[in-house]
Amino acid sequence: MGFKCLLIALALASCICITALAEDVAKEDIKQSFQDESLFTIRKDTGMSANAVDTGVRTPVVVVKGIGIAAVAGSWGLTLNDVDSSYVKLDLNQTADAVFGSGVLTTRGISIPVSAGGTVIGNRLALFVVPIGSQNMYRFSMTITSGSMNGDYVFTAPGVTQPGVAFGSLLAPMSSAPAVQQTVPQTAATTAAAAQPAATATAPVTP
After folding, report:
1. Cβ(119)–Cβ(98) under 8 Å?
2. Each residue of 96-123: pLDDT tens digit?
3. Distance (Å, whole) CA 171 – CA 77
4. 166 within 8 A of 150, measured Cβ to Cβ
């Protein structure tokens, strides 16, 4: 009986030593992984702790002065060529580098309404065109020149990925909205006064 108790005691002591050693190794691994950095200090530019390496970290976009942004607003007609030929007319609006709008895609004699959205940097336009009510999408990468654009695209649908080329021209620039003519609303008193005839002055009659 005493021998069995001794073996159990030795086994428990061995388990305790192994557990303590494993905890020390884990702590050392964590220490090496984070390089003794403070996990409660967050950098605003990366959203990570202060001593984290920058490799693979997505930082905010740096705007390079002098590149500018091409004007894209207007009505565009683009011809799309892959295994078939299609045509899309887009009415695009622009706010700084953001581009958005709608249009009509004509393919195989069928016209489908589409929505569009993307970004322009310099003379490069990344535009996503989606036929409304479908899971299809055209991802355009276009180069803008004066009054025209050309480039390529990838058409994606469930189970389908088809590259193609696109080119087209500006059909009409975006027209500015007409000025709203402001009118002063007439009050009831003003309307009543305008409806009354003007009083005529009469000279008093002397006896």
Report:
1. yes
2. 999 999 999 999 999 999 999 999 999 9
3. 6
4. yes
Task: Give the contacts of 204 (CB within 8 A, at least 6 positions apart).
Answer: none
54 CA to centre of own chain: 25
Q: What CATH architecture is 74-173?
A: Beta Barrel (2.40)
What confidence tier does 33 reach under pLDDT thresholds 50, 70, 90?
Answer: low
In the three-class reduction of DSSP (H, G, I as helix; E, B as strand; rest coil), residue 26 is classed as helix
Is 70 exceeded by the pLDDT of residue 70? yes
The per-residue pLDDT for 74 is 95
Backbone angles phi, psi at 22, to 5 degrees: -65, -40
Tokens 């990344």 belong to residue:
126
Task: Give the chain's mean pLDDT.
Answer: 75
Verdict on whether the full-model pTM lies above 0.70: no
Which amino acid is located at 91 in the chain? Answer: D
DSSP three-state, residue 198: coil
**CA pair distance 4, 23, nearest whole angstrom:** 29
What distance, in Å, lies between the first and last C-alpha atoms of the chain?
A: 153
Q: Which residue has the higher pLDDT, 200 or 93?
A: 93
CATH 2.40.128.120 location in the chain: 74-173
